[in-house]
Design a protein that fits this description.
Layout (H helix, E strand, L loop, with lengths): L10 H11 L1 E2 L7 E6 L5 H13 L5 E6 H9 L7 E7 L4 E9 L2 E10 L4 H16 L4 H8 L4 H20 L5 E4 L8 E4 H26 L9 E4 L6 H11 L12 H5 L1
Parallel strand pairs: 2-3, 4-9
Antiparallel strand pairs: 1-2, 4-5, 5-6, 7-8
Amino acid sequence: MVGLCTRGVTCEQTGGFVTENYQPKRDSPATAMYVPHPARWGAPRRNTLMSAARLAGMTGNIVLVPEPVAAAAHFNRLAPGSSLAVYDLGSGTFDVAVVAASPQGFTVLAEDGLPDLGGTDMDQLLLEYVGRQVSNRDAAKWQLLLRPESTADRRAQRALIEDVRAAKEALSRHPQTVVPMPEPFADVTVTRPELEALIRPNLTRTVELLSSTIAASGVHPMSLAGIYLVGGASRMPLVGTLIGERLRVAPASLDQPETAVALGA
């Protein structure tokens, strides 16, 4: 979730975010611009998003679409009366919603989220784990990676953060991977069970919120047309495992779940 034009973020910067995230509707007139937004955003934030869209240079008919509605539209052509749940684990936040289809379109039945939890939190846990494996080799050098003082230190830090993120993503496809480390540290091998032990508490929070949101919608999990995984961090196999254990429903995903909202808008 993005806080619009607040906490140091200007409307001009938000305009850049809008430009990156909107998608023209393929089966709509060329003048229609569909811009997704978190379902929990009230009128003030939606109005600010509309202003940002104008600042980004959009003209014509701009339509704001709740993100779970956009994801639902991309995943499934729901029959009227059907409902589905959207589990959206992005880089910075977690959002969940239950969406129902009607002849007039989609309605959000229930929604919730965790603004303090996302894929970058998993990256941080893995970085700390790697640090525990190597920092005793040269504690001062490790601290320079965490708190860089020179251009070279900052470059090394950026490379390490990117390598840790890549390792997390690789473990969604492979049972183990290697995090390359700068000198004087040795490369670190990480297994999927090791990563899952680190992230299980956070992912358990998301699944508990998914369960309570489905309950709040009044729809039984077995009556849903599906539970759909959205956001790049939802690729992690443990997500599907925990959902299946808790709700007895196997979730569905795409090859690129991070694109579901944008492509459905």
